[in-house]
Specification:
Blueprint (H helix, E strand, L loop, with lengths): L2 H16 L18 E7 L10 E11 L9 E10 L15 E11 L3 E6 L16 E8 L4 E16 L1 E9 L8 E5 L9 E4 L3 E2 L3 E8 L6 E8 L2 E10 L6 E7 L6 E6 L8 E6 L1 E2 L21 E5 L15 E6 L3 E5 L7 E7 L2 E2 L4 E2 L4 E9 L8 E2 L3 E2 L5 E6 L7 E13 L12 E5 L1
Parallel strand pairs: 11-18
Antiparallel strand pairs: 1-2, 1-8, 2-3, 3-6, 4-5, 4-7, 7-8, 7-9, 10-12, 12-15, 13-14, 13-16, 16-17, 19-21, 20-29, 21-29, 22-28, 22-30, 23-24, 25-27, 25-29, 26-28
């Protein structure tokens, strides 16, 4: 048989194979439960194959690396064809690594559109008349809306590079295909950078104190108010923030129980649109009775500070091909609140992606279980943050609430767990966990 005839025969056989919805090496799916779904598929083989279209059933699933993202987060999607619509229809075995899949995932619900996905040029050898192995394709999308977002398998194409470059497009017969995965997105919490400073930390009853503010909404009406512990007093004034969000105003303070001053936008105090409390006290100007002596001492306010027991953490190793939880413990963090005012504090952490030999593990794979202890005699009581994902957006490790008098000494720590995908390339991966006390 001549060379040209042999090439045509191989091309014909290969075309018949590709139309069967084909193959690829299965990839490790990211964390996130996925549901297998079946849907009718219409595949058109390459014209050179001389074979009519095939209508069959595809079984597929979709996995995500983050099922609870925030608006603005990027979600990685893995579309896996678990069971192709047909097997190799010929008795001719096909070699390894000749097939490259591409496709799309259809979004629905709170966010609509398509996510483009692609897989590597990788497949196991396919015996004659044998079943095709599953293959996976990955892609990403940015979350733009809060709510439940559904993900359904979409159309896909198999490109083969064996003797000839051929394509076999496969479409969903009755789109959209059933939903395989749902993620629930939440609104991202905006960062509140509003801040105030006072011209003085004390004054006589009826005196005015200068309040300077920054990072408020330009042009907003800002209320200045006294606080007695957690309760707002009757002392109030308003100012207007400038074009750069700053202001300078005066508040006359009469309430002798005042412990601090706040500034906020809107009709009532809101931690999301306010700043403070900044510590402020009324001087005791009560006259000394005849024949008496007034004895005074001063307790000096200190600072809010933290220290940590170490600056490195070694997590446990995991096996290539298995992956799973790489665990360890955060070095203990000591918080000292010696300010003596009404304000509590918050200790938060965020982490970078874990980078290694030519690959990375997403920051969203790191979770922690916080714990916090309060030293006896401390006015405040430490509260541990919720167990869950740390990620690049951050999470709370520990905090204390505002109160009439706050302060004390506290120890915070956490158990750490990094969910390592099964086929992450072997090597050492490192990320930086940054703690912020405010």
């Amino acid at each position: 048989m001549g060379s040209t005839s042999r090439r045509r025969r191989w091309a014909s056989l290969l075309g018949g194979t590709v139309l069967a919805v084909t193959a690829g090496g299965a990839l490790a799916c990211p964390a996130g439960a996925a549901t297998n779904v079946d849907f009718a598929t219409h595949c058109i083989p390459p014209a050179v194959a001389g074979i009519p279209p095939i209508d069959g059933t595809t079984t597929a699933s979709i996995a995500v690396d983050n099922a609870s993202p925030k608006v603005g987060d990027t979600v990685t999607v893995t579309y896996t064809v678990v069971k192709p619509a047909a097997s190799n229809p010929t008795a001719i075995a096909l070699p390894a690594d000749i097939m490259t899949p591409t496709g799309k995932v259809t979004l629905g619900g709170a966010q609509t559109g398509d996510v483009t996905v692609a897989g590597p040029k990788k497949n196991d050898p396919v015996p004659g008349n044998g079943a095709f192995p599953s293959f996976s394709m990955t892609g990403t999308f940015k979350v733009t809306a809060a709510g439940a977002i559904t993900l359904s398998p979409g159309d896909y194409n198999i490109h083969t590079s064996y003797i000839l470059e051929l394509d076999t497009p496969c479409t969903v017969t009755n789109p959209p295909a059933p939903v395989s995965q749902t993620v629930t997105a939440t609104d991202a919490t905006p960062v509140n950078n509003r801040a105030i400073t006072l011209g003085s930390a004390s004054g006589n009853a009826g005196a005015g104190v200068t309040v300077n503010g920054s990072n408020f909404t330009p042009g907003a009406t800002v209320t200045l108010a006294g606080r007695s512990g957690d309760t707002q007093t009757a002392d109030k004034a308003t100012v207007t923030a400038g074009a750069d969000g700053s202001f300078s105003g005066s508040l006359v303070v009469n309430d002798k129980t005042t412990t601090g001053i706040v500034a906020y936008e809107g009709s009532a105090w809101s931690a999301g649109k306010g700043a403070g409390p900044a510590a402020y006290v009324i001087n005791d100007t009560t006259p000394v009775p005849a024949g008496s002596q007034k004895v005074t001492t001063t307790v000096k306010a200190g600072t809010l500070s933290m220290s940590q027991a170490g600056d490195s953490v070694a997590l446990s190793a995991v096996d290539f091909g298995k992956g799973g939880a790489s665990t360890g413990a955060l070095n203990a963090v000591t918080v000292k609140d010696f300010r003596g005012g009404p304000a509590g504090w918050s200790l938060t952490g965020k982490v970078t992606d874990f980078t290694g030999p030519g690959a990375k593990i997403d920051a969203g794979k790191l979770s922690w279980t916080p714990a916090c202890a309060t030293k006896a005699g401390s006015p405040s009581t430490c509260q541990a943050g919720s167990a869950g994902t740390v990620g690049s957006s951050g999470a709370t490790l520990a905090s204390t609430p505002n109160g009439t008098l706050t302060g004390g000494e506290f120890t915070a720590n956490a158990g750490l767990s990094l969910d390592v995908p099964a086929f992450t390339p072997p090597g050492s991966y490192s990320g930086v966990l940054t703690l912020t006390l405010s």
